[in-house]
Amino acid sequence: MAETASSGQRLFRSIQAAKPKLVTGVPDGMLAQTIMLCEATPDFPYIACAREEECIGVASGAAMAGERAIVMVQNAGLLNSLGAFATMGLRYGLPFVVIVTNRGALADPNGYDIEKREAFDAGVRPMTRVFDFDAADLPDDLIPAAFKWAEAARKPVILALEKRLGAEAAA
Amino acid sequence: MSTPPMNTPSNLPSQQDAISAALALYPARPFAVSDIGSQTGWLKAAGHDARNLYVSGPMGLATSVALGLAAVRPNEQVLAIAGDGALAMNLTSLATIAGAKPKNLSILLVDNRIYEFTASVPTPTCDLDWLAVGRAFFGAGQCLRLSDLTPERWASVSRPAMIVADVAPAPGKPPALGMTPAMIRAEFLGASKR
Q1: pLDDT tens column, B48-93
Q2: Is B68's CB within 8 Å of A50's CB?
Q3: Which of B184, B129, B53, B101 is nearest to A91 (CA)?
Q4: CA B171, B17, B163: angle at the middle one, nearest 5?
Q5: How near does any CA of chain A get to the CA of B149, in Å?
Q6: What residues in chain A have their Cβ under 8 A from chain B's Cβ atoms?
Q7: What is the pLDDT of residues B65-76, one digit of tens each?
Q8: Cα B42 → chain centroid
């Protein structure tokens, strides 16, 4: 029987398929495997930032030069970075992709995550388009499609990944 | 925290002159990424160039933007221009840059000890020894005073590196940028593709 890829591996393969010039991020448990795969690949540099707002800056620098860049952060990290997201990503119309783990879902009920999720819904969704996905069931063409959308829309796109009930077996 | 040796404001260079002097250290024009406000205004006043990237993001983000640019243009030199108030707002970027070790990125820290665009309120870092800060992140040989540099010496300094320039507070704000974000992006995109 063929071995199935984990959700972290599938996300990494989708990132690879989009041929980014760089990936940057701050770790979250749901992203850890993908980040380690990004750090190990020779296909693009992974820039490990000390703070999430820096990631928006790093991606903006690449996008200003017309290159594809991907940010990976937790929802709390994006909340820390909204000023940069607005004044760089939206103001300059930069088509980078932000992968956000949207913690605090029904299947992910850590007490310390609940308010982050509520703040994400209240603060991020009215500002820009967010596409939501089951972290355990990501389409293979997710990241290439996200770049196509961002490049057509001329602005960043946010992909919110969450744990969903009943998805553990699929992951 | 020790008090750094300080010239009197009257014999310090202007921010515009310090930026010009730093750019003149390079044999060819580097990409110059300036923070919002003073650095962007004085960079343009020092000489507009399509390789200037005027950042309108949060104060201090220029170092991070420059890191991303340096990563995708590894054969080009990139100079981030940050004020002391701005860099203090993104001090963690120095740790990130030190970890990423880009071989083509440098930072010019222009220290006028005030928020020039905000009624010249003193910065909380006005007594900070920025040379010591830079050396803590990048090493003694890679953080130098602008006044100690020549093009020959600068060419021998490994990157990432940092230049510290004490500058005089300006009597007024720099001339307005006069460019929209769309103009900045389009012009820079063209220059960065060449």
Answers
A1: 999 999 998 899 999 999 999 999 999 999 999 999 999 999 999 9
A2: no
A3: B184
A4: 115
A5: 27
A6: 21-22, 24, 45, 47-51, 53-67, 69, 83-84, 87-88, 91-94
A7: 999 999 999 999
A8: 11
